[in-house]
Amino acid sequence: MTKDTSTEESQHNAAKRRAKGEFVRGVSGFRHAVGDPGFPAEPGRYHLFVALNCPWCHRVTLARAVLGLQDSITMDVAFPNRTTEDDPVGPNLWEFSPARTASLTGTTLPECTAETGTGEGLRLAKQIYQREGSDEQSVPILYDKIAGRIVNNESAEILRMLDAHAAALGAPANRPRLLPEDQATRQQIEELNDRIYVTINNGAYKAGFSSDQQVYQAAYTAYFETLAFLNNLLSDGRSFLTGDAFTEADLRLFPTLYRHDPVYYLRMKLNGAKILDYPHLWRWLCRVHGLDGVAEAGSLIHCRQGYFGRSWNGVIPLGPHAPMPYPEAYAHPELARD
User: Fold this and answer.
1) Residues 94, 78: contact at Cβ < 8 Å?
2) How far, in Å, CA of 15 to CA of 128, rounded?
3) Which of 107, 137, 145, 305 has the greatest number of C-beta atoms within 10 Å?
Protein backbone atom coordinates (compact mmCIF):
# COMPACT_ATOMS: atom_id res chain seq x y z
CA MET A 1 0.00 0.00 0.00
CA THR A 2 1.21 3.52 -0.77
CA LYS A 3 2.47 5.58 2.17
CA ASP A 4 1.57 9.26 2.19
CA THR A 5 0.85 12.09 4.58
CA SER A 6 -2.87 11.31 4.49
CA THR A 7 -2.14 7.87 5.98
CA GLU A 8 0.64 8.31 8.53
CA GLU A 9 2.68 11.03 10.18
CA SER A 10 6.34 11.60 9.34
CA GLN A 11 8.61 9.91 11.89
CA HIS A 12 11.51 12.30 11.23
CA ASN A 13 13.15 13.14 14.58
CA ALA A 14 10.12 11.56 16.30
CA ALA A 15 11.93 10.81 19.57
CA LYS A 16 13.31 14.34 19.80
CA ARG A 17 9.90 15.86 18.96
CA ARG A 18 8.19 13.74 21.61
CA ALA A 19 10.82 14.72 24.17
CA LYS A 20 9.96 18.38 23.50
CA GLY A 21 6.28 17.72 24.14
CA GLU A 22 4.87 17.11 20.66
CA PHE A 23 2.37 14.30 20.11
CA VAL A 24 3.72 12.16 17.24
CA ARG A 25 1.54 9.30 16.02
CA GLY A 26 3.37 6.02 15.52
CA VAL A 27 3.35 3.86 12.38
CA SER A 28 1.30 0.68 12.02
CA GLY A 29 3.43 -2.42 11.40
CA PHE A 30 1.09 -4.85 9.58
CA ARG A 31 0.55 -3.73 6.00
CA HIS A 32 -0.70 -6.75 4.07
CA ALA A 33 -3.83 -6.31 1.93
CA VAL A 34 -6.92 -8.30 1.12
CA GLY A 35 -6.17 -9.61 -2.36
CA ASP A 36 -2.49 -10.33 -1.58
CA PRO A 37 -1.33 -13.96 -1.93
CA GLY A 38 -2.74 -15.84 1.05
CA PHE A 39 -5.45 -13.24 1.76
CA PRO A 40 -8.19 -13.82 -0.83
CA ALA A 41 -11.29 -11.64 -0.88
CA GLU A 42 -14.17 -13.86 0.23
CA PRO A 43 -17.14 -13.47 2.57
CA GLY A 44 -16.89 -14.78 6.11
CA ARG A 45 -13.09 -14.93 6.16
CA TYR A 46 -12.21 -11.65 7.88
CA HIS A 47 -12.71 -10.20 11.34
CA LEU A 48 -12.24 -6.77 12.88
CA PHE A 49 -10.98 -5.96 16.38
CA VAL A 50 -12.03 -2.41 17.30
CA ALA A 51 -12.78 0.03 20.11
CA LEU A 52 -15.75 2.30 19.49
CA ASN A 53 -14.16 5.29 21.23
CA CYS A 54 -11.17 5.19 18.87
CA PRO A 55 -11.62 7.45 15.81
CA TRP A 56 -9.28 5.29 13.70
CA CYS A 57 -11.44 2.26 14.49
CA HIS A 58 -14.51 4.37 13.71
CA ARG A 59 -13.25 4.68 10.14
CA VAL A 60 -13.38 0.92 9.62
CA THR A 61 -16.66 0.36 11.46
CA LEU A 62 -18.15 3.06 9.22
CA ALA A 63 -16.77 1.39 6.09
CA ARG A 64 -18.12 -1.99 7.23
CA ALA A 65 -21.54 -0.41 7.84
CA VAL A 66 -21.99 1.80 4.78
CA LEU A 67 -20.70 -0.94 2.47
CA GLY A 68 -23.15 -3.44 3.97
CA LEU A 69 -20.48 -5.86 5.22
CA GLN A 70 -21.87 -6.41 8.73
CA ASP A 71 -22.91 -10.00 7.98
CA SER A 72 -19.74 -11.01 6.14
CA ILE A 73 -17.06 -9.41 8.34
CA THR A 74 -17.38 -10.30 12.02
CA MET A 75 -16.24 -7.90 14.74
CA ASP A 76 -15.19 -7.77 18.39
CA VAL A 77 -15.40 -4.57 20.45
CA ALA A 78 -12.97 -3.72 23.26
CA PHE A 79 -13.93 -1.85 26.42
CA PRO A 80 -13.34 1.90 25.94
CA ASN A 81 -10.93 2.21 28.87
CA ARG A 82 -7.70 0.27 28.76
CA THR A 83 -6.25 -1.82 31.57
CA THR A 84 -5.19 -0.05 34.75
CA GLU A 85 -2.01 -0.05 36.83
CA ASP A 86 -3.27 -2.95 38.94
CA ASP A 87 -3.77 -5.28 35.97
CA PRO A 88 -1.42 -8.29 36.24
CA VAL A 89 -0.27 -7.81 32.63
CA GLY A 90 0.16 -4.06 32.92
CA PRO A 91 -1.64 -0.78 32.19
CA ASN A 92 -2.83 0.91 29.00
CA LEU A 93 -3.81 -2.24 27.06
CA TRP A 94 -6.97 -2.73 25.00
CA GLU A 95 -9.14 -5.34 26.71
CA PHE A 96 -12.07 -7.47 25.51
CA SER A 97 -14.10 -7.44 28.68
CA PRO A 98 -17.91 -7.46 28.26
CA ALA A 99 -18.40 -7.80 32.03
CA ARG A 100 -16.52 -4.59 32.85
CA THR A 101 -18.65 -1.73 34.22
CA ALA A 102 -18.54 1.76 32.73
CA SER A 103 -18.29 4.55 35.29
CA LEU A 104 -20.46 6.81 33.10
CA THR A 105 -23.47 4.47 33.09
CA GLY A 106 -22.83 2.25 36.11
CA THR A 107 -23.53 -0.75 33.87
CA THR A 108 -21.79 -2.95 31.36
CA LEU A 109 -21.74 -1.71 27.77
CA PRO A 110 -23.82 -3.92 25.47
CA GLU A 111 -21.58 -3.32 22.46
CA CYS A 112 -18.50 -4.76 24.21
CA THR A 113 -17.68 -8.38 23.38
CA ALA A 114 -15.37 -11.18 24.33
CA GLU A 115 -12.62 -11.97 21.81
CA THR A 116 -13.93 -14.40 19.21
CA GLY A 117 -11.82 -13.79 16.10
CA THR A 118 -8.88 -16.04 16.96
CA GLY A 119 -11.06 -18.75 18.50
CA GLU A 120 -8.88 -18.65 21.62
CA GLY A 121 -10.84 -16.20 23.77
CA LEU A 122 -7.88 -13.88 24.29
CA ARG A 123 -8.37 -11.03 26.74
CA LEU A 124 -6.04 -8.41 25.28
CA ALA A 125 -5.43 -7.03 21.80
CA LYS A 126 -1.72 -7.27 22.66
CA GLN A 127 -2.04 -11.05 22.81
CA ILE A 128 -3.25 -11.14 19.19
CA TYR A 129 -0.03 -9.41 18.17
CA GLN A 130 2.12 -11.60 20.43
CA ARG A 131 0.96 -14.68 18.52
CA GLU A 132 2.83 -13.21 15.55
CA GLY A 133 5.90 -12.11 17.50
CA SER A 134 4.94 -8.43 17.55
CA ASP A 135 4.92 -6.04 20.50
CA GLU A 136 2.26 -3.78 18.97
CA GLN A 137 -1.03 -3.36 20.82
CA SER A 138 -3.18 -0.99 18.77
CA VAL A 139 -6.62 -1.31 17.23
CA PRO A 140 -8.14 -1.57 14.66
CA ILE A 141 -6.92 -4.96 13.49
CA LEU A 142 -8.13 -6.70 10.33
CA TYR A 143 -7.67 -10.42 10.96
CA ASP A 144 -7.87 -13.49 8.69
CA LYS A 145 -9.74 -16.17 10.64
CA ILE A 146 -8.78 -18.95 8.23
CA ALA A 147 -5.07 -18.17 8.02
CA GLY A 148 -4.97 -17.16 11.70
CA ARG A 149 -2.99 -14.03 10.83
CA ILE A 150 -3.20 -10.26 11.12
CA VAL A 151 -3.73 -8.72 7.70
CA ASN A 152 -3.43 -5.02 8.46
CA ASN A 153 -3.66 -2.56 11.34
CA GLU A 154 -3.65 0.76 9.44
CA SER A 155 -7.19 2.14 9.30
CA ALA A 156 -6.72 4.17 6.09
CA GLU A 157 -5.63 1.05 4.24
CA ILE A 158 -8.28 -1.21 5.77
CA LEU A 159 -11.18 1.00 4.69
CA ARG A 160 -9.75 1.30 1.19
CA MET A 161 -9.36 -2.47 0.76
CA LEU A 162 -12.88 -3.09 2.08
CA ASP A 163 -14.16 -0.69 -0.57
CA ALA A 164 -12.03 -2.15 -3.38
CA HIS A 165 -13.08 -5.75 -2.63
CA ALA A 166 -16.58 -5.07 -1.31
CA ALA A 167 -18.39 -7.24 -3.86
CA ALA A 168 -16.14 -10.26 -3.31
CA LEU A 169 -16.38 -9.79 0.47
CA GLY A 170 -20.18 -10.00 0.30
CA ALA A 171 -21.45 -6.42 0.00
CA PRO A 172 -24.80 -5.81 -1.70
CA ALA A 173 -24.87 -4.51 -5.27
CA ASN A 174 -26.34 -1.14 -4.24
CA ARG A 175 -23.43 -0.22 -1.96
CA PRO A 176 -21.74 3.19 -2.37
CA ARG A 177 -18.28 3.41 -3.92
CA LEU A 178 -16.03 5.23 -1.46
CA LEU A 179 -13.27 5.78 -4.00
CA PRO A 180 -14.95 6.31 -7.38
CA GLU A 181 -13.31 5.45 -10.69
CA ASP A 182 -13.49 9.05 -11.93
CA GLN A 183 -9.94 10.40 -11.75
CA ALA A 184 -10.93 14.02 -11.11
CA THR A 185 -13.02 12.98 -8.13
CA ARG A 186 -10.22 10.74 -6.87
CA GLN A 187 -7.83 13.67 -7.00
CA GLN A 188 -10.25 15.78 -4.96
CA ILE A 189 -10.55 12.98 -2.42
CA GLU A 190 -6.77 12.60 -2.10
CA GLU A 191 -6.30 16.34 -1.60
CA LEU A 192 -9.06 16.47 1.00
CA ASN A 193 -7.74 13.35 2.75
CA ASP A 194 -4.33 14.92 3.10
CA ARG A 195 -5.58 18.13 4.65
CA ILE A 196 -8.19 16.40 6.82
CA TYR A 197 -5.71 13.86 8.20
CA VAL A 198 -2.98 16.37 9.00
CA THR A 199 -5.11 19.18 10.47
CA ILE A 200 -8.32 17.47 11.66
CA ASN A 201 -7.90 13.74 12.39
CA ASN A 202 -4.32 13.80 13.65
CA GLY A 203 -4.50 17.53 14.35
CA ALA A 204 -7.06 16.97 17.12
CA TYR A 205 -4.67 14.58 18.86
CA LYS A 206 -1.72 16.91 18.37
CA ALA A 207 -3.73 19.70 20.03
CA GLY A 208 -5.06 17.51 22.82
CA PHE A 209 -2.03 15.44 23.74
CA SER A 210 0.97 17.69 23.08
CA SER A 211 2.47 19.32 26.15
CA ASP A 212 4.22 22.12 24.27
CA GLN A 213 2.21 25.36 24.02
CA GLN A 214 3.52 26.29 20.57
CA VAL A 215 2.74 22.84 19.13
CA TYR A 216 -0.76 23.05 20.64
CA GLN A 217 -1.34 26.56 19.24
CA ALA A 218 -0.23 25.56 15.74
CA ALA A 219 -2.49 22.49 15.78
CA TYR A 220 -5.41 24.49 17.18
CA THR A 221 -5.06 27.17 14.51
CA ALA A 222 -4.78 24.68 11.64
CA TYR A 223 -7.78 22.72 12.94
CA PHE A 224 -10.12 25.71 12.93
CA GLU A 225 -8.77 27.01 9.63
CA THR A 226 -9.71 23.69 8.04
CA LEU A 227 -13.16 23.73 9.64
CA ALA A 228 -13.73 27.16 8.05
CA PHE A 229 -12.41 25.87 4.71
CA LEU A 230 -14.73 22.85 4.77
CA ASN A 231 -17.71 24.95 5.82
CA ASN A 232 -17.07 27.23 2.85
CA LEU A 233 -16.64 24.23 0.54
CA LEU A 234 -20.11 23.02 1.50
CA SER A 235 -21.68 26.46 1.18
CA ASP A 236 -22.51 25.94 -2.51
CA GLY A 237 -25.25 23.48 -1.53
CA ARG A 238 -23.43 20.24 -2.27
CA SER A 239 -24.51 17.32 -0.09
CA PHE A 240 -21.04 15.88 0.49
CA LEU A 241 -17.45 17.07 0.26
CA THR A 242 -16.92 16.24 -3.41
CA GLY A 243 -20.50 16.68 -4.64
CA ASP A 244 -23.66 14.61 -4.49
CA ALA A 245 -22.08 11.28 -3.46
CA PHE A 246 -20.72 10.15 -0.08
CA THR A 247 -17.05 9.22 -0.53
CA GLU A 248 -13.96 8.24 1.42
CA ALA A 249 -13.25 11.90 2.18
CA ASP A 250 -16.58 12.23 4.02
CA LEU A 251 -15.99 8.98 5.86
CA ARG A 252 -12.55 10.04 7.07
CA LEU A 253 -13.79 13.44 8.27
CA PHE A 254 -16.84 12.14 10.12
CA PRO A 255 -15.25 10.43 13.19
CA THR A 256 -13.50 13.62 14.32
CA LEU A 257 -16.44 15.95 13.78
CA TYR A 258 -18.81 13.45 15.43
CA ARG A 259 -16.63 13.76 18.57
CA HIS A 260 -15.97 17.50 18.43
CA ASP A 261 -18.90 19.12 20.27
CA PRO A 262 -19.46 16.48 23.00
CA VAL A 263 -15.83 15.41 23.57
CA TYR A 264 -13.00 17.20 21.74
CA TYR A 265 -14.23 20.72 22.55
CA LEU A 266 -13.14 20.02 26.14
CA ARG A 267 -10.84 17.00 26.06
CA MET A 268 -8.67 18.14 23.15
CA LYS A 269 -8.75 21.84 24.15
CA LEU A 270 -10.43 22.66 20.83
CA ASN A 271 -12.78 25.18 22.40
CA GLY A 272 -12.69 27.85 19.69
CA ALA A 273 -16.13 26.93 18.36
CA LYS A 274 -18.52 24.01 18.03
CA ILE A 275 -19.55 22.37 14.79
CA LEU A 276 -22.94 23.97 15.44
CA ASP A 277 -21.20 27.27 14.69
CA TYR A 278 -20.35 26.12 11.15
CA PRO A 279 -23.83 25.80 9.65
CA HIS A 280 -22.91 24.01 6.44
CA LEU A 281 -20.66 21.57 8.29
CA TRP A 282 -23.34 20.95 10.91
CA ARG A 283 -25.90 20.09 8.26
CA TRP A 284 -23.32 17.85 6.57
CA LEU A 285 -22.67 16.11 9.91
CA CYS A 286 -26.39 15.49 10.42
CA ARG A 287 -26.74 14.26 6.83
CA VAL A 288 -23.92 11.73 7.22
CA HIS A 289 -25.17 10.59 10.63
CA GLY A 290 -28.52 9.83 8.99
CA LEU A 291 -27.06 7.47 6.36
CA ASP A 292 -27.91 3.78 6.74
CA GLY A 293 -25.65 2.10 9.28
CA VAL A 294 -23.74 5.21 10.38
CA ALA A 295 -25.39 5.80 13.76
CA GLU A 296 -24.85 2.15 14.72
CA ALA A 297 -21.17 2.23 13.73
CA GLY A 298 -20.17 4.49 16.63
CA SER A 299 -21.05 5.30 20.24
CA LEU A 300 -20.70 8.58 22.10
CA ILE A 301 -21.07 6.69 25.39
CA HIS A 302 -17.92 4.77 24.48
CA CYS A 303 -16.25 8.02 23.37
CA ARG A 304 -17.03 9.88 26.57
CA GLN A 305 -16.08 6.89 28.73
CA GLY A 306 -12.86 6.35 26.81
CA TYR A 307 -11.56 9.91 26.55
CA PHE A 308 -12.63 11.36 29.89
CA GLY A 309 -12.39 8.08 31.80
CA ARG A 310 -8.63 8.04 31.25
CA SER A 311 -8.11 11.73 32.09
CA TRP A 312 -6.25 12.80 35.22
CA ASN A 313 -9.14 12.14 37.63
CA GLY A 314 -11.36 9.86 35.56
CA VAL A 315 -14.48 12.02 36.01
CA ILE A 316 -16.71 12.15 32.94
CA PRO A 317 -18.62 15.39 32.16
CA LEU A 318 -22.38 14.89 31.86
CA GLY A 319 -23.02 17.50 29.18
CA PRO A 320 -23.52 19.08 26.83
CA HIS A 321 -27.31 19.27 27.08
CA ALA A 322 -27.84 22.49 25.09
CA PRO A 323 -29.28 22.90 22.60
CA MET A 324 -30.00 19.20 23.21
CA PRO A 325 -28.05 16.07 24.17
CA TYR A 326 -25.77 14.27 21.73
CA PRO A 327 -26.10 12.17 19.58
CA GLU A 328 -29.80 13.12 19.46
CA ALA A 329 -28.75 16.57 18.17
CA TYR A 330 -27.45 14.97 14.97
CA ALA A 331 -31.05 14.36 13.88
CA HIS A 332 -31.63 18.13 13.88
CA PRO A 333 -29.87 20.05 11.10
CA GLU A 334 -32.01 23.07 11.97
CA LEU A 335 -29.92 23.58 15.12
CA ALA A 336 -27.13 25.09 12.99
CA ARG A 337 -26.18 28.59 14.13
CA ASP A 338 -26.47 30.48 10.85
Assistant:
1) yes
2) 27
3) 305
Instruction: Say how far apart CA 310 and CA 323 lie, in whole Å.
Output: 27
Model-level pTM? 0.94
Q: What whole-number distance in Å separates Cα of residue 251 and Cα of residue 152? A: 19
Three-class SS state of 284: helix
Q: Judge whether residue 2 has pLDDT over 50.
A: no
pLDDT at 16 over 80: no
What stretch of H or E contains 151? Answer: strand 149-152
Which is it for strands 46-50 and 74-77: parallel, antiparallel or unpaired?
Answer: parallel
- Tell me if 35 sits within 8 A of 1, measured CB to CB: no
Instruction: Please list the active-site residues.
Output: 54, 205
Residue 206 makes CB contacts below 8 A (sequence gap 6+) with: 22, 23, 215, 216, 219
27-169 classified as CATH 3.20.20.70: no
CATH of domain 183-335: 1.20.1050.10
Question: Domain residue spans in the chain?
Answer: 27-169, 183-335
Sign of CA dihedral 94, 79, 83, 312: positive
